[in-house]
């Protein structure tokens, strides 16, 4: 495989570890835990993995030389740093005992079920150290939830003499990791399951998880691109750029990018929902800013739109809920119909309120909302062209105002969608170190007999030597939610908090950003050079943790 000069140099970067993981390690157990909500239900569903204590690692004098083979799975969307979790895991299990072996299951959880794997060795890992992407073993979205999948997985686990599986994934994948841990524990198979918090979306966080890996690099990459667009926009002064940003339901990515680049407008889905805003109200607000700037002679601007926005507009959210239930209950019957018949089928089955919302949406958007869900029951928001929908509606409103003599500017919109551009970027120093430490922690949780835990690293706005590593029981983060029409135990998603410091910092400045041109151009991620540039965390993490 030919590699770039950057990749070659970057392979030599030695990620930094928290002090507790630098030598021999021991476990300090903390308080027993409870789930965030629905305690009785969760306890009943997870009798073997519920209520376990928090775990923190401490330096020790004696080495544990646990003999253990480990299997690792990358699950869901790519996030920068996945290869470093694997490197941290590999190095730590080899440190424990050089005979330990690591197997990577291929193309996500499906690799465990289908017995497709690769042994990870020092040689084949070298080219992937500190690189982005999940291409070393691939990723996938197969949902691990059925007993027959667990039993099929067990066959290969036994064959390779694997003691534990590490699942690197987002909230849904870690929920499944916990279900698998509980199943193997209930059957007394002696197989441990450990999770790792991955997702660029930044929505897998809580009191114990400060941030999910990949968020840092992905938002820095998008901010570089947004900054470049802002600079172009401020040079040509003739376009309005509508930029949709990945992030699924949560607006963390959009908010972080706004804090880094100071665009004219950034929509936050969680605020739209809290203020019960209609699509028309959102459009009118944007049109007012366009008109204000036009009056100042500024027929240009930048608007950031989180990809999940549409789900948070209350009337559309209600429609999506009903569509989710409808598709879950009538999936096969519906999928066999052609496009026109599918629309008629939906109109015939929706309640009258949701039917009228469905009918008011442009046909393309209505169709995108009724497409098949992903394996976890989520609407595939990355496929919905919200940026075009909104800019078109803004254009219509401005035309109307023009006719009424209220506006006399020029409105030339351009559209962008940033998502895939950042998910495989070379990890920033933060993500490279954080992921390596998560991999190391996962190995230590296994060596110390834990199952149903997620590896964690805390105190991340301090220097790496002050980072604290350990584990949190996955059940602690769970509550009951409706999925595919049924109540299920799931990890609670962290949405943008409207009383949180990042959102407040944004609100304090957004009016100025709308009226004036205050763009900031962050430039590309730096790997070598001044620490003030190379080692900065995200503004979100800094504002949230700097209490
Ligand atoms: P995860 O939740 O699996 O980390 O994926 C995040 C994400 O990048 C979302 O931001 C986006 O909506 C989705 O994946 C896109 O899915 P796909 O990779 O299947 O196109």
TrEMBL record:
Question: Main subcellular localization, coarse class?
Answer: cytoplasm
Q: Which cofactor does it need?
A: Mg(2+)
The annotated pathway is: Carbohydrate degradation; glycolysis; D-glyceraldehyde 3-phosphate and glycerone phosphate from D-glucose: step 3/4
Record domain Phosphofructokinase: where: 69-324
Spell out the catalytic residues.
201
Q: Where does Mg(2+) bind?
A: 171
EC number(s) recorded for this UniProt protein: 2.7.1.90
Cellular component, GO annotation = cytosol
GO molecular function term, any single one: ATP binding
For site (Important for catalytic activity), what residue positions does UniProt give? Answer: 198
Short name of one Pfam family: PFK
Record-listed substrate binding positions: 199-201, 238-239, 246-248, 307, 420-423
Biological process according to GO: fructose 6-phosphate metabolic process; response to glucose
Q: Where in the cell is it found?
A: Cytoplasm
* Activity regulation note: Non-allosteric.
Query: Which reactions fall under this protein's catalytic activity?
Result: beta-D-fructose 6-phosphate + diphosphate = beta-D-fructose 1,6-bisphosphate + phosphate + H(+)
**SUPFAM superfamilies xrefs:** Phosphofructokinase
Keywords associated with the record: Cytoplasm, Glycolysis, Kinase, Magnesium, Metal-binding, Transferase
Positions binding diphosphate in this chain are 77
Q: Where is this site: Important for catalytic activity and substrate specificity?
A: 172
Instruction: Note the subunit structure.
Output: Homodimer.
Family, as annotated: Belongs to the phosphofructokinase type A (PFKA) family. PPi-dependent PFK group II subfamily. Clade 'Long' sub-subfamily.
Query: What NCBIfam families does the record tag this protein with?
Result: PFKA_PPi, PRK07085.1
Instruction: Tell me the function of this protein.
Output: Catalyzes the phosphorylation of D-fructose 6-phosphate, the first committing step of glycolysis. Uses inorganic phosphate (PPi) as phosphoryl donor instead of ATP like common ATP-dependent phosphofructokinases (ATP-PFKs), which renders the reaction reversible, and can thus function both in glycolysis and gluconeogenesis. Consistently, PPi-PFK can replace the enzymes of both the forward (ATP-PFK) and reverse (fructose-bisphosphatase (FBPase)) reactions.
Q: What is this protein called?
A: Pyrophosphate--fructose 6-phosphate 1-phosphotransferase
């Amino acid at each position: 495989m030919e590699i770039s000069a950057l990749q070659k140099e970057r392979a030599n970067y030695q990620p930094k570890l928290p002090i507790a993981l630098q030598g021999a390690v021991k476990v300090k157990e903390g308080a027993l835990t409870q789930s965030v909500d629905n305690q009785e239900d969760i306890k009943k569903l997870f009798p073997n993995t519920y209520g376990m204590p928090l775990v923190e690692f401490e330096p020790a004098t004696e080495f544990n030389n646990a003999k253990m083979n480990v299997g690792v799975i990358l699950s869901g969307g790519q996030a920068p740093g996945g290869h470093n979790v694997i490197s941290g895991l590999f190095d730590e299990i080899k440190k424990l005992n050089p005979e330990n072996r690591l197997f990577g299951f291929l193309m996500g959880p499906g690799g465990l079920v289908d017995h497709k794997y690769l042994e990870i060795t020092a040689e084949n890992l070298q080219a992937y150290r500190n690189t982005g992407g999940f291409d070393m073993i691939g990723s996938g979205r197969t949902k691990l939830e059925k007993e027959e999948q667990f039993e099929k997985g067990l066959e290969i686990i036994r064959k390779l003499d694997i003691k534990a599986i590490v699942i690197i994934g987002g909230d849904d994948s870690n929920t499944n990791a916990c279900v698998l841990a509980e199943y193997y524990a209930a059957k007394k198979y002696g197989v441990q399951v450990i999770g790792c918090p991955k997702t660029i979306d930044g929505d897998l966080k809580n009191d114990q998880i400060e941030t999910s890996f990949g968020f840092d690099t992905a938002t820095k990459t998008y901010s570089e691109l947004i900054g470049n667009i802002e600079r172009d926009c401020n040079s040509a002064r003739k376009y309005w750029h509508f930029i949709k940003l990945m992030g699924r339901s949560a607006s963390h990515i959009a908010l972080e990018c706004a804090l880094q680049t100071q665009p004219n407008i950034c929509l936050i889905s969680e605020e739209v929902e809290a203020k019960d805003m209609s699509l028309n109200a959102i459009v009118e607000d944007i049109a007012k800013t366009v008109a204000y700037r036009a009056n100042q002679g500024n027929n240009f601007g930048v608007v950031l739109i989180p990809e999940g926005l549409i789900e948070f507009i209350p009337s559309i959210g209600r429609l999506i809920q009903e569509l989710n239930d409808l598709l879950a209950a009538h999936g096969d019957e519906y999928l066999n119909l052609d496009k026109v018949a599918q629309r008629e089928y939906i109109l015939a089955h929706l309640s009258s309120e949701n039917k009228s919302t469905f009918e008011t949406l442009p046909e393309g958007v209505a169709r995108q909302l009724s497409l098949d869900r992903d394996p976890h029951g989520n609407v595939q928001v990355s496929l919905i062209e919200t940026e075009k929908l909104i800019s078109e509606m803004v254009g219509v409103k401005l035309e109307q105002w023009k006719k009424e003599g209220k506006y006399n500017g020029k409105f030339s919109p351009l559209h962008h969608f940033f998502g895939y551009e950042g998910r495989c970027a070379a990890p920033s120093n933060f993500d490279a170190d954080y992921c390596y430490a998560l991999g190391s922690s996962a190995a230590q949780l296994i060596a110390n007999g834990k199952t149903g835990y997620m590896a964690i690293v805390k105190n991340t706005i301090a220097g790496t030597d002050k980072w604290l590593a350990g584990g949190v029981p996955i059940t602690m983060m769970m509550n009951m939610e409706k999925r595919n029409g049924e109540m299920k135990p799931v990890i609670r998603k962290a949405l943008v908090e409207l009383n949180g410091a990042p959102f407040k910092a944004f609100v304090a400045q957004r009016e100025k950003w709308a009226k004036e041109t205050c763009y900031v151009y962050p430039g590309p991620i730096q790997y070598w050079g001044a620490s003030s540039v190379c080692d900065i965390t995200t503004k979100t993490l800094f504002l949230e943790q700097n209490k």
